[in-house]
Amino acid sequence: MVATTTEVNISNVLLMTGDFNIQDSLRNHSFSYHSSISDDLIMIADSFDLALSFPTNPGSTRFSDTTGESNSVIDLMFLRYGSAELDKHSILPDSRLSSDHAPLLIDIPIFDEIIYTLKLTITPKSEQETEFIKDIISKVKSLDTTNIDDIDKLDQIVNQLGSIVELLWAKKCKKIENLQTF
Question: Where are the domains positioned within the chain?
Fold first, then answer.
């Protein structure tokens, strides 16, 4: 038997939602029992810094077509603790179409983000491009390729060529700094 340990690192979780199939009297007052599984779910969400969100329009999220079976609240949403940008979610029972589950709706604001980028370039058809190409040709001509008779020697020549291009690129390219808003 082989024992393995898997560690999952999920950071920056904003929300968790889904059909958790857990009825509980805390969320549905017509259901008469509290579930310890519900407590486990709350603890898992808490480990991701998430809290159970209560909808702005409380009501059922799953609708039963079976006679004698009541509607339930099993679709839940957990939101990041202290997220002032995230308001409570709402239940859309009239939008469920042929599903027995009502969609949950939340608005998540997306803010502009400024990202600093740095690009290295050689302007096409410029003097720097002409010099770059001439220098590469000159260096390639000086490579000793007469005794390439095995894979190791070929690999050595290819690595030398890569080093030549990298070195000449670093000498001839120019930096272009840019701030972009997304």
Answer: 15-105, 114-181
